[in-house]
Each structure stands twice: as structure tokens, then as C-alpha cells.
Give the backbone structure.
Amino acid sequence: VLETAADRADWGARLPPGVGRGIAVVESYGSVVAQVIEASLAADGTPVVHRVVAAVDCGDVCHPDTATQQVEGAIVMGLSAAIAEQITVERGAVVQSNFTDYPLLSLARTPPRIEVHFVKSDGAWGGLGEPGLPPVAPALANAIFAAAGRRIRDLPVVKAPA
């Protein structure tokens, strides 16, 4: 799975200046998911994700379109959480009250390219919704380090010290 993600993402190919590539892999719910993220930092330090490549071994895939959508949704959800989502508490109360003041990733900020590749396997069926999320934050953090030399140790990234 890790090799498939790296191969499909052209790991080792040159990227434009200021763009980095990061990789991460996770095993959960009976599936193995690896992701490669290509990202840069905007002038204000906000991550800009250009491409996500995922490789998944979840056993036999009987509905490829639905399976792909599950992984894509998990990637977008993971990026939203890693980049900007947070709940803040002031004087014992949650500040955010609705979507108007909770920073979800907008459609305009989702990656223009998300690729999902399934690795053929005779293994038992595994999950698809949850396993696509955990590799997002570490792959993004690795991409930011490769792009800008900045280690991400706190989430969300927008609140991490520069």
C-alpha cells in the first residue's frame, strides 16, 4: 500500500519551489491506507493542498465508486480538521455556536486533485469511512516540513506557531 501510494504520486519527482510532499500510512478497521499529500504554504502561513494520492487495501471492493467516495470524504474531513477546525472555550462556554463561526474547509479550498487507488487483495473486508482520515494530518505535516522546513506539532495547523 505504501509503495502504491508513493508510485502513484510520483514520489521522488521534482516539485515546484515551495511545494513539499509528505507521506503517511495507517492500519485501522481492517484496512491499510497510505496517503501522499503535496502542499505549500500561502503568504499568511495557511496550508494549500495541491494533491492527495491515497492507496487503500480494504479487501475486495464491490462498489468502487462508493468506496472511492468514502475515502475522498474522509480525506476532506481530515484536511478540514488538520488545517483549521477547533472548538474554543471562554469562561466555561463553547464560543462556536454554528457553522457561521466554525472554520470548516470550504469547497474552494479542497484539493483540486484527490486520487484513490485500491490495492487488489484477498484479505477480509475492512472499513473505508474511518481509515481514510488518520493519515491526513501526518502526511500534511510532512509535506509542510518538506515545503517550508516548518515542523507541525500542534493542530489545527493555522494555530501552530510559525
User: Anything to note?
Assistant: The two ends are 33 Å apart (CA to CA).
